[in-house]
Design goal:
56% helix; alpha+beta; 17% strand; elongated
């Protein structure tokens, strides 16, 4: 039976390294988005990611979502200055830290 599983685990290390690199890139991008927002909004961002041409920013509550939307033009300028231009929309969603991705994103 051990031989039957060998092909499944053959490239497990490489796959885990790739997954780790992808997670690090995603975390670095979310940090860049936080740093590109005004200071009072940074800690309210749960995560941020690109979805196609759009930027999706997940924040703690609807009140913070409105503030992040208002800061959108400045966020776009700062990301462009950091060599991360946006060609799509900035979409702001409400979520909570620590929930799974499926459960966390609540569409306003």
């Amino acid at each position: 039976m051990g031989r039957d599983l060998k092909p499944l685990f053959a490239d497990l290390h490489g796959s885990l390294l790739e997954l780790s690199r992808d997670a690090s890139k995603a975390d670095a991008f979310a940090s860049l988005v936080r740093q590109s927002l005004p200071e009072h909004l940074r800690s309210r961002v749960v995560t941020a990611t690109r979805r196609g041409d759009d930027l999706v920013v997940v924040v703690e509550s609807a009140a913070w979502a409105a503030r992040v939307r208002y800061a959108g033009p400045e966020l776009r300028r700062r990301l462009e200055a950091a060599a991360q231009p946006l060609t799509g929309k900035i979409r702001v969603r409400v979520g909570r830290p620590g929930a799974s991705d499926q459960a966390r994103v609540v569409r306003p």
